[in-house]
Design brief:
Two copies of one chain form a homodimer. By secondary structure, chain A is α+β, with helices and mostly antiparallel strands. Chain A is 40% helix and 21% strand. In chain A, helix 6 (169-184) packs across helix 7, helix 6 packs across helix 9 and helix 7 crosses helix 8 (208-220). The A-B interface holds A 82, 84-85, 88, 90, 92, 103-104, 106-109, 113-114, 136-141, 143-144, 146-148, 150-155, 157-162, 164-166, 205-206, 245-246 and B 82, 84-85, 88, 90, 92, 103-104, 106-109, 113-114, 136-141, 143-144, 146-148, 150-155, 157-162, 164-166, 205-206, 245-246. The first copy, chain A, binds a DNA duplex through residues 168-170, 196-198, 206-210, 212-213, 215-216, 226-229.
Chain lengths: 252, 252
DNA sequence: TAAAAACTAAGTATTACTACTTAATGAGGA
DNA sequence: TCCTCATTAAGTAGTAATACTTAGTTTTTA
């Protein structure tokens, strides 16, 4: 819970495989800041940007720690989670390049309601809450953009509420497979983002054994293939069809 | 799905029990517009406010209908829901005075992802999307306020995701009882908002029978009392204790 | 080659489904 | 205004389906 975790991450700047870029030359077209660079306020505030490197497995937002600012994921993959009863993780979402992380700390919250852990070596842009709030109070277009982002996140979350209360475990696992596949794509015939069975369970709201059992069944039905942790989708159409009745199409 | 439902509601202005008030003299301190009346842009735009009356049971937002604007609940109670598989309702939340309804239509959505039904005769303030967007693009404080509202809604929704995937049915029902009690208070020893067992089930993500069974059990344990539809909470502390491990405190 | 993760299977608990009875509510007519 | 009937909702119980727990073995990964 100590706030020094950010500094720890900041110091480790040895790895040169991740290239540092300023907002002006940043390749990340999906970034909200990049989209609003023509605004004077936004442009000024990018000067206060800090870069944070995270190694695989490193937690850069601690659940319950005071809110200091907002992160933009420049490169890498991150899982966002809440801790439940007996330490059981509820994975809220998986984030990729260009996405905002830590925005749940805004609002009335004093502390981050979520934790964030890098799933691979990642590069983050960081802006302090103070600086951000200044821009949000002066540039309505930027604020409106962030507001729309929240609105979309809210819709996604509520769709997930519905799916958790109305889908079976099998359906939720299929749904999770499709979500990860849609968002992160494939690589050599396998879903590009490699997750453990436990992580699938923590996202789908079930247990590791259930995930294993359902994946075994899907394998027997020749709908997927597996090789160790990696999962390949064979019949995307049939999997989609199985959950189509719930018309649950959640992008990103 | 026809857009004329609003006009139907608008015409029925016979009932005089609900008093019409303009934003300036409005008693609703919790309303976001009321809070921002000192802004010129907000003040001007309140002139475009329309008042809509809804009778008990009337649906004033149809799921899937094109987004036309935003509602502020001036008086009454409303349930917000999503329709799932086989017409099963998922109640997203119960809204009371001062709350915003239909905000889920903002974002990339073209149509309302939710439906809204009045649980009692209600009075709504309505603002068209066009007018609203104009203010949102000019007044950053108002936009920031709405953004914070979304941020809080997002937190609530994600807490609900966690509760659905980690709580038992009994816990979820207790949690729902506490939520409704906290939000709507008591009346003659019973929870002021009277809901059907089905509505409790649709909110808690279970079946009507399970709700009845759990309520019967709670009654036998002398934790609650019931009289017809009405439910009285006897031992608030014990009920709270039972779900305290999940540290699930969701206000409003 | 340890350690971690995947996988299997049996037993248990929980939850949903089906079918039914009983109580409460509301509308129309005397 | 009260009564009756129809309708709606509450409540009960047994069964089937689903999901979780536990305890183990095998495979994969670092």
């Amino acid at each position: 819970m100590l706030p020094s975790y950010q500094h720890n991450a900041l110091i480790e700047q040895k790895d040169t495989s991740l290239i540092t870029t300023a907002c002006g030359t940043c390749s990340n077209a999906r970034c909200l800041i990049k989209k609003n660079l023509n605004s004077a306020a936004v442009n000024t505030f990018t000067k206060h940007r800090k870069e944070i490197r995270c190694k695989k497995g490193q937690q850069f937002i601690m659940e319950g720690a005071p809110v200091t600012g907002l992160f933009f994921l420049l490169k890498g993959t991150v899982k966002v989670l809440r801790t439940g009863l007996h330490g059981k993780e509820q994975i809220v979402r998986f984030a990729k390049e260009g996405e905002i992380i830590g925005h749940r700390g805004f609002g009335t919250e004093e502390s981050y309601p979520i934790g964030a852990i890098a799933l691979e070596d990642s590069l983050l842009c960081y802006f302090s809450k103070d600086i951000l709030q200044e821009v949000l109070h002066t540039d309505p277009t930027f604020t409106y953009g962030l507001m729309l982002f929240y609105a979309n996140e809210l819709n996604k979350s509520e769709v997930k509420v519905k799916s958790l209360s109305q889908m079976t475990v099998r359906e939720r696992i299929i749904d999770t497979l499709l979500y990860v596949n849609r968002k992160f794509g494939q690589n050599n015939g396998f879903i590009a983002l490699v997750l453990s069975r436990r992580e699938y369970a923590d996202y789908a709201g079930t247990t590791e054994e259930q995930v294993i059992r359902v994946l075994s069944a899907l394998k027997k039905e020749h709908l997927i293939t597996t090789k160790g942790k990696r999962i390949g989708i064979v019949h995307l159409d049939l999997l989609k069809k199985e959950i189509s009745e719930h018309n649950f199409y959640l992008d990103s």
